[in-house]
Amino acid sequence: MTETAHTTPSDGFTLIEMLVTITLMSIVSLLAWQALDATGRSVTRAQDISNDSTAIVRTLDQISEDLARHALLESPYPDRSGQLRRPDSPSLPASITWSDNRLTILQHSRNGELIPVSWQITRNALVRNTPSEQGQAALHDVTRLSLKAWIGGRGWIEPAAIPAGLRASGLEISIEQARENDAAPRTFRMVVMLP
To answer: How does it sit in the membrane (predicted)?
Structure first.
């Protein structure tokens, strides 16, 4: 009888198989990391947009609430010192004034006293001022605040250009915001009806 030599296959991986496996795992890991990084940046951008939208809605709601709470005054009306004052723009209610890009709204306090609430741009922020809270920034990166009044039959007009004897029945507040990442400034508008 003759003995024949049988060779048994190796039970392990060859060096080339290991190198191919490691290379494929590296490529898959790199692609997964890039996908996670892109997802993370997208989530951060979506969060920033959500925060911006929330701040804008909150600011417009506060301006609308301030305008809705304006004191119903007859012209002329007493100021804080008790002297009679005539409104700067008779086309607007006596308690709402617009001058030098500043919106001022007189409201009654709990004790009946007239208190001013004003909105203006200070250092690229839209700021709300009251006697108790000075310089509270409501919205950042604001480049323009504007106001137009609705005059029936004439449309939207700047308050200073309203002809004598005409009365506004609504206001349009516009806020322009220019963020670093935006290609162009964004403008947000709100219309408030006047009593």
So the answer is: Single-pass membrane protein
